[in-house]
Every structure is written in structure tokens, then in C-alpha cells.
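Quick start: read one record
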Amino acid sequence: MRRRSTGFHEFIRAIGKPEGQVVLDLGPTSPANLHFITGLGHRAYNEDLLLAASDPELLIPAAGGDDKRTINVNRFLAENLDYEPETFDAILLWDLADYLPEALVKSVIDRLHRVMKPKGILFGFFHTKDAGPEAPYYRFNIAAADTIELRRGPQFQLQRIFNNRHIENLFHDYSSVKFFLGRDNMREVLVIR
């Protein structure tokens, strides 16, 4: 399934020039994305944070003494997103924040702020409707400067729905947040550090 995206088109226009920018893709490895980004003359990095967050070795007992478990955030951040401050000019967040375990969301967004250059740009999707645990998870592949191809990926469970205020609060350390409404229950967001 293909999806035209105004927000993504603005993201691509923002990183179009100069060449040599550093872009971080936070989805599953996509040859199409790597090819597109390097075709712009940029360096591409990739980390599949959702897959990394599903590692059972990261689970520790939750506070409260019951049988619940949570993610060891410090260990996760030590093993992922371990870059020097201000490394990236641009980041493709995709819909990662909707699927990450709650314990990781704020810490990951804060870490992204640290590894982005001032005036760096981040592009993401946020669901606008809770489709329940059966909501399909998609991998995002860049098809063109304004088009993204969605392919069904492994079955990860949608964890939450952020409204506009939640998204603004999530990115409160950033200088601007711009919203684009999609017709398919997805909100597009461009964030400037």
C-alpha cells in the first residue's frame, strides 16, 4: 500500500541540500530507505528500536513488589542510540512512539534531542484512532520524495494513542512541532530541535 505524505515531502525538502547530512532511520532496515537517503548525498544510519525493545533480556521487576516487569531503561539506552551529542541532521521516527513500551518513550525522545544537531528535523507518524491490539504494524519504505510504501511487518501491539497536546508535551524541549492530518487515521508530525 502506498501513501502520499505532505509532512514527509516537507521533511525531504528540508534535508535536500546541502549534501553530506547525517540521517537516522529508526525503523526496520530498509534497502529502499538507505538507497533514497544515500542518493541525496547523505550518510544513513539505521536502528530498529522496536525490535531492540522487545528483547526479553531487558525486562526487570517493576516497582511495587508484584509480578509485573518493566524495561531496564538505562540498559536499553546504553545499548541503543549510543551516539555523540549533535550527530544527526535528521531523524525518521516513523510511528515508533506509538509502539514503544511506556517506560521507554520519554527517555528515547530525550535521547533523540541529545543526538540531533540544533535545527535538526524529525519526522514521525502518530495514530489518531485506537484500532485495538489487532492494529497492523507497518514497515515504512521510501518510494519517492512524497510517497511512502507501507508493508505489513511483524505483529507489534499498538501501545497508546497520543493526542496533539501529548505530542507537544513529548517534544517540549524542541523548538517547534508542526502537524499534518492524514486521511488514514495517522497524524504526521515534523519537529525541529
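The longest helix spans residues 102-115.
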